[in-house]
Amino acid sequence: MTIDKTGRTSAGILLYRRRGMTLEYLLAHPGGPYQVKDLGNWTIPKGEVEPGERLLDVARREFEEETGHPAPDGPAIELGEIRQKSGKRVVGWAFEGDLDPAAAVSNAFEMEWPPRSGRLSSFPEIDRVAWFDPIEARRRIKAAQSPFLDRLEAALGLGLPGSTGADLEAPAER
């Protein structure tokens, strides 16, 4: 069952790094007892925007809450927005940087678990983060968020998805 989240907006950050002749993307796997699916369930670290908040500020805050590390200070690449199956609007930015997945720590949330037990249990909002090459990232990320990968590659002047061309030097000053 999909919950209708039409009218809600989240903002997030796609962290990327260059490894040899390819890019790698840092994706986050949602935590909680219902998040057992792996392929097609990973996401960019993101969170909901409250009225009056600036989108990029929210993206930075949520990245830090979900990874335990601040987003890089470098220039942000605007990735535009997508709409998830639930109807939620997600606005994304990309930053080049590095993060050790073993050092990532997410904030937690509480929910009644098991259902109707009357007991609250705590779960990490993100149970793990990992680096993926372009092909594997497209297998892991929610289908609606895959345009973020395409848009970043286009912004960096790279070829087709999964490209391993020699054009991975940092883009020239614009």
The CATH homologous superfamily: Nucleoside Triphosphate Pyrophosphohydrolase
Using the coordinates above, name the CATH class: Alpha Beta
- DSSP, total strands: 8
Percent of residues in helices comes to: 10-25%
Distance between the termini: 46 Å
Secondary-structure content class: alpha+beta
- Fill in the CATH topology: Nucleoside Triphosphate Pyrophosphohydrolase
Question: Compute the gyration radius: what is it?
Answer: 16 Å
Low-confidence stretches: 160-174
Give the number of helices: 3
Q: How many separate structural domains?
A: 1
Per the principal axes of the C-alpha atoms, what is the gross shape? globular
Most strands sheet: 6 strands, mixed
Brief write-up:
The protein is α+β, with helices and mostly antiparallel strands. The protein is built from three helices and eight strands, in the order βββαβββββαα.
What does this molecule look like?
The protein has three helices and eight strands. Strand 6 (108-112) and strand 7 (120-124) form a beta hairpin. By secondary structure, it is of the alpha+beta class. Strands 1, 2, 3, 4, 5 and 8 form a six-stranded mixed β-sheet that branches. The chain has one domain (9-155): Nucleoside Triphosphate Pyrophosphohydrolase, CATH 3.90.79. The protein is globular and about 55 Å long.
